[in-house]
# Entry
Amino acid sequence: MTISDINETHDAARTSWVDSAQGHADFPIQNLPLGVFSVGGDQPRGGVAIGDQIVDLAALSALGVLEGLAQEAAVTASTGTLNALLAMGPEPRAALRFALSALLSDADQRASVEPVLVAQADATMHLPVTIGDYTDFYVGINHATNIGKLLRPDNPLAPNYKYVPIGYHGRASSVCPSGARVIRPTGQRKGPDDAEPSVGPSRRLDYELELGVWVGEGNALGEPIPIGRAGKHVAGLSIFNDWSARDLQAWEYQPLGPFLSKSFISTVTPWIVTAEALAPYRVAQPPRPEGDPKPLDYLWDEADQAHGAFALTLEVFIETAQMREKGIAPHKLSSGPATSMYWTVAQMVAHHTSNGCNMRPGDLLGTGTISGPDNASFGSLMEISQAGKHAFTLETGETRTFLEAGDRITIRATASAEGYASIGFGSCVGTVEERPSA
# Structure
C-alpha cells in the first residue's frame, strides 16, 4: 500500500452510527480489522471489529446490502477461517472494507445492519486463519545488538546481519490467540558454571515484542516474489508475542537455532489490521547508518524505502497477581516505535521467497523482537534486566528479572499520523502459569 491508496474510508471526520466506535482506542470506523469469532456453541465465522461490536459477515452477506466483490468477500469470509479471503488478494478485501465503511457511517442503514452486530464481550475470538507455516525473523537491530553484546561483547552483530534478513522456521501449531494459557515450559538448561545440563522448568521465561505479518495471496513454488510486488502479498498486521525460555535457548540454540525454547507457545492478537487500513501510517524506512551496506538488488526498491515502514507505537505492560489483588494498574515496561526494524516487511517477504520458497495464504511471519534505542523502549526482559543481572521494582515492591507465576504481559500498538484518526490492534495478553504437578 502507498499514499495513493488513501481514500474516504480514512477520513478522520468520518463517524459511525455504532456509538462505541466514536473515539475508540483500537477500532474506530477508520480501522475495520478482520477476525474470526463465535458465540456460545455457534460455529466460528468471520467478523469485522467496529467499536466494541463485531459485524457478523455471514449474517451481513445474507441481507442483500453488499454487491460485487464486497459481497463475494463477505461470503468467502463467512466460514471459520479467513484463508480463502486472504487468497483472493487485496481487491476483494479492499472492496469489503469500503462497503462496510459506507454502511456503518450511513445512519439510514442502521435499522438493517444493526441486527447483525455482536457484542465483543459476548464473543470468543479464534485464530483468524489456519496457519500452515510460521517464520520468525530478527529484524529489530537494537534487540539484535543488545542480545549480541550480552553474548558476544566484542562482535555483537553477526557478519551477515546487515546483508540478509535473518529468520528461522518456527512452530505453527503452538501459535494461539490472545488470552491463551502460557504454561511455563520444561526443558534442558545448562548455566555457565554447571558441569552437566539438568531438566526442569525454565527459570528465565521472557516475552518478545513483535509484529505478526499475515500473508495474503501466495506464490507458486519456484517463483520468487519481487520486492516491488511484495506489499501486494501482505494482507495485514497483528501484535505478536513470541514467548521465550532464555535458559533453554542458551543451551539448545547452537548450531541450528531456537527449538523448544520458542515452540511452547506464541501469542497473536486475533484481529488482522489490514494493509488497506494501514495506508495512512506508512512512512519512510529510516536511512541506514553511514557505512552500512546497501541491500542487494533483490532487496532494494525505492518505493518500499519511501513508504515501507509503519508509524506504530508499541507498548508492553506487566501486571503481577499481587497487583491484580490490590487493584494496582499494570506497570509499563516499555514504549517504542516500530521504525526500529532494520528490514521492511516487503524485504522480509522478498527474501523469504527469493530461493523459490512458496508462501501460502495465512502464513505468518514474525518480525523478531522490536526494541528502541534505550532501556525505556526495549522489547524483552532479557534486555531490560541485562540477562538477569539487574532487577526492576514494581509498585507493590516486588522485583523482577524474568517472569514469575501469575505475571500477565499485555502488548498494545497504536498507528498514528497527523491528520488521521489513530487506530489500534487490540491487546495481546498472556498470563504465566506453572505446569501442574504430575
Summary: The chain is about 20% helix and 25% strand. The CA atoms of residues 325 and 385 lie 25 Å apart. The chain has two domains: 3-126, 134-433. The radius of gyration is 22 Å.
